[in-house]
Amino acid sequence: MARSPFEWIDEQARARSRAGLVRTLRPRPADSALLDLAGNDYLGLARHPEVTEGAARAARTWGGGATGSRLVSGSTELHAELERELAGFCGFESALVFSSGYAANLAAVTALAPHGSLIVSDAGNHASLIDGCRLARGTTQVVAHADPDAVRKALDTRAGPAIVVSDTVFSVDGDAAPLTALAAACRDAGEAGETGEAGKPGRPGAALVLDDAHGLGVIGDGGRGAAWAAGLAGAPDVVTTVTLSKSLGSQGGAVLGPAHVIDHLVNAARTFIFDTGLAPAAAGAALAALRLLREEPERAARARAVATALYERLTAEGLEAVRPDAAVVSVRAPSPEQALRWAAECRAAGLAVGCFRPPSVPDGISRLRLTARADLTDGQVDRAVGVIIEARR
Ligand code: PMP
């Protein structure tokens, strides 16, 4: 028989298996009794009746799909409404909705980093930002994690336009980026022009592009996001991306920023132009969740309080964890194998937790990743802590 063109895949699979790093899918039954600290439904809205009804109503009104790309047939009044309300809630002039946060990040980075530009990217950034850097025509400099001085040094080397790209809350460890210092580094990279006819034109500062996937709904007044909390929302040199799939319990993403920047994305971002518009059901669910968030601002504070409680209780038991800045609580595991065993023990005891291992974590540190939810009761927090401690033994 002819040799398979996929032999190399089988070789990779064997190597993965030898290293104990095989990933498998585990379909979740609708009636799962697991206590879920693995998903990103930070506000407990994914199954909220108003959110599911928002999805159903949108599907009935607009159909099961958007029918085409946004520039052809896929823009509905529902998309426009969601964009207006998202921008308004987060304090930005304009918003553009995408079919995922991943696509939104690819759009923001590629469309804002043309040939000859510099992208300064935090080493801890999410894969979607990394992929945006890889696809962009500009040159990327990866800088040390959460290090504004390294950002300044990198910006000194630029010859053309520059953007600084960072998660607001890093997805693996749940730590926050130093947004105020990053914004200052961006602005200090500019030089005022000389006045008068023969004066030199000066040079603009760098733009700050923030991925607020884990900040929206959790950080800032009532969950208005990390840019809002840092006083950067609506600034002329700041662009934020969000996902609709975490605190808003839906699916999709968005880029928020000055209107002329959003107009540029409509005309230049390939993941906007060539992708089918966000499904109406996802837009309807996100809009309903956003309205709930506005009416019930206490949800954001509750998610943060649950995260802090998990952190304090687990570290009091001697576990090593990162102090959470939002809803993600990262607990260190001694090895990839032990992380896997630990997560499996938790699951057997009725608790779903995330398990992050190399190569998803480039620093080689394995972790249990817990996500706080606003709808967890104190009793459920007690139970989760008990299971995690017991499962470690
Ligand atoms: N950015 C960050 C920081 C994320 O954690 C994620 C989701 N894992 C994304 C972007 C991608 O968002 P989406 O799932 O909506 O594609």
Task: Compose a concise summary of this entry.
This protein is an alpha/beta fold.
Biggest sheet character: 7 strands, mixed
Q: Tally the helices.
A: 14
**What is the radius of gyration?**
22 Å
Total strand count, please? 11
CATH top-level class of the largest domain: Alpha Beta
What is the name of the CATH superfamily of the largest domain? Type I PLP-dependent aspartate aminotransferase-like (Major domain)
CATH topology of the largest domain: Aspartate Aminotransferase, domain 2
Describe this structure in words.
This protein is of the alpha/beta class and 393 residues long. It folds into two domains: 31-47 and 297-392, Aspartate Aminotransferase, domain 1 (Alpha-Beta Complex); 49-295, 3-Layer(aba) Sandwich (Aspartate Aminotransferase, domain 2). Helices cover 41% and strands 14% of the residues. The chain is built from 14 helices and eleven strands. The protein has helices spanning 7-18, 49-62, 77-90, 101-112, 127-135, 148-156, 179-188, 226-229, 259-268, 270-273, 280-295, 298-316, 336-348, 378-392, and strands spanning 35-37, 94-98, 118-122, 139-143, 162-167, 207-211, 238-243, 253-257, 328-332, 351-356, 367-371. Strand 6, helix 8 and strand 7 form a beta-alpha-beta unit. The longest helix is centred in the last third of the chain and has 19 residues, at 298-316. The structure holds 4'-deoxy-4'-aminopyridoxal-5'-phosphate. 4'-deoxy-4'-aminopyridoxal-5'-phosphate binds at residues 100-102, 105, 126, 128, 167, 171, 211, 213-214, 243, 245, 253. 4'-deoxy-4'-aminopyridoxal-5'-phosphate is lined by residues 100-102, 105, 126, 128, 167, 171, 211, 213-214, 243, 245, 253.
